[in-house]
């Protein structure tokens, strides 16, 4: 069982920090990234991450006239361009700290490249129920291009996922328990966006976990979350993050003997999660590393495996919910119900006889009818016969019968 990267009691103002302090290397990396984010926040840095296809086209535009040197901070930390010093008033000391952690690489004499990108987490708009301005709104993820399999993903899909969660919270948040506090997990958290958003939505009185197969993602998620929710303030604590194959590494609630156990807040028995949210990998080409095979439907293997665990005995408790975001391939002559919906119907069909619960689909929202259109480019391969990929948001509840 993996332990969470931080363990904070949500109801106590005096925070109980992890007993063992993180290794110095991790601290240095955290400090270097937080230093960068604070500096960029001070410069009112703003960058919304486009799709990789758009990024590649913009890259070509920027490289026109062979001018491949960054002109500003956005070129460096948004468009992943090489840069030279001095760059605006970017401090030499910060450059050195980032270089020490390999977050900035030296490419040639006085020529550098950032291995991370910095993006605005929440674009303007109704992402959060409260309209109060966020003091910290920057987020770190992998530089472009993200060919490396361990790259930490962030992009338009994440923005849609967060919007879907806000919408689900507005419609169904009242179904979450108030006492004892909700236990929620973001499966496939990547850089932690979903878990961070859950913490914003649910407030401090919730246990929030971010889970991912990738250790690199878990490390970055912890750093991102501790930037958005600094430990030395009275605001909500950052979520806990753990390496996990779907739910296998989900940290169990603190037992009554644990110093972080808060009587009346933590449960003495573990009834499972109250909420599971997920934005899994679903592009067939990208998911081939996770699932064998190469049909469009194989892109749904992992989303369906995650959904099956969420709906299974070790997933969500009776009364709890699943907020699932994914992309679904639709055949050229597709019909009203998509492949994912058909699978959801099979998985939630009655016949749970004697179990005392059933699953109900509370909402199935086609959020965008056409995403990743570039996947339609080839006439062979996984998307042969597919006309488009649609983004859907599905809300399910496990109800008592
Ligand atoms: C499409 S990315 C989404 C990241 C993040 N949720 C977001 O919206 O920005 C999917 C993530 O799922 C993770 N993943 C893949 N297989 C997994 C598994 N079996 N268990 C947990 N996470 C997994 C990947 O490492 C990746 O970070």
UniProtKB/TrEMBL annotation:
Q: Where is this region: Disordered?
A: 1-24
Composition bias, Polar residues: 1-10
Family matches, as PROSITE patterns: N6_MTASE (PS00092)
Which InterPro entries does the record associate with it?
DNA_methylase_N6_adenine_CS, N5-glutamine_MTase, SAM-dependent_MTases_sf
Cellular component GO terms held in the UniProt record: mitochondrion
Gene Ontology molecular function terms on file: methyltransferase activity; nucleic acid binding
Biological process according to GO: methylation
Against SUPFAM superfamilies, the record matches this protein to: S-adenosyl-L-methionine-dependent methyltransferases
Q: Which PANTHER family match?
A: HEMK METHYLTRANSFERASE (PTHR18895), MTRF1L RELEASE FACTOR GLUTAMINE METHYLTRANSFERASE (PTHR18895:SF74)
Q: What is this protein called?
A: Methyltransferase small domain-containing protein
Q: Which organism is it from?
A: Saitoella complicata (strain BCRC 22490 / CBS 7301 / JCM 7358 / NBRC 10748 / NRRL Y-17804)
């Amino acid at each position: 069982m993996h332990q969470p990267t931080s363990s904070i009691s949500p109801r106590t103002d005096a925070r109980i920090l992890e007993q063992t302090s993180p290794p110095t290397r991790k601290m240095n990396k955290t400090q270097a990234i937080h230093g960068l984010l604070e500096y960029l926040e001070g410069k009112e840095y703003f960058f919304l991450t486009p799709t990789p296809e758009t990024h590649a086209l913009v890259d070509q535009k920027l490289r026109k006239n062979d001018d491949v040197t960054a002109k500003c901070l956005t070129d460096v930390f948004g468009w992943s361009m090489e840069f030279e010093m001095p760059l605006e008033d970017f401090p030499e000391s910060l450059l050195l700290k980032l270089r020490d952690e390999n977050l900035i690489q030296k490419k040639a004499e006085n020529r550098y490249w950032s291995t991370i990108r910095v993006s605005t987490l929440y674009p303007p708009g109704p992402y959060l129920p409260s309209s109060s301005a966020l003091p910290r709104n920057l987020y770190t993820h992998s530089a472009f291009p993200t060919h490396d399999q361990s790259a930490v993903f962030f992009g338009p899909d994440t923005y849609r996922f967060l919007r879907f969660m806000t919408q689900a919270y507005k419609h169904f948040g009242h179904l979450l328990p108030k006492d004892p506090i909700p236990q929620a997990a973001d499966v496939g958290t990547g850089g932690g966006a979903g878990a961070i958003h859950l913490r914003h939505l649910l407030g401090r009185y919730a246990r929030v976990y971010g889970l991912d197969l990738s250790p690199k993602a878990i490390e970055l998620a912890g750093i991102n979350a501790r930037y958005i929710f600094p430990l030395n303030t009275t605001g909500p604590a950052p979520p806990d993050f753990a390496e996990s194959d779907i739910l296998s590494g989900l940290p169990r609630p603190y037992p009554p003997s644990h110093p972080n156990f808060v009587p009346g807040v933590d449960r003495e028995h573990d009834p499972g999660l109250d909420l599971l949210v997920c934005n899994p990998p679903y592009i067939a080409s990208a998911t081939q590393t996770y699932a064998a095979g190469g049909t469009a439907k194989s892109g749904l293997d992992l989303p369906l495996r995650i959904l099956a665990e969420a709906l299974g005995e070790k997933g969500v408790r009776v009364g709890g919910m699943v907020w699932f975001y994914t992309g679904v391939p639709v055949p050229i002559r597709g019909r009203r119900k998509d492949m994912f919906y058909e699978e959801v119907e099979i998985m939630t069909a009655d016949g749970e006889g004697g179990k005392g619960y059933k699953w109900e689909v509370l909402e199935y929202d086609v959020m965008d009818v056409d995403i990743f259109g570039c996947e339609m480019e080839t006439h062979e391969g996984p998307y042969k016969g597919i006309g488009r990929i649609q983004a859907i948001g599905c809300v399910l509840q496990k109800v008592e019968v």
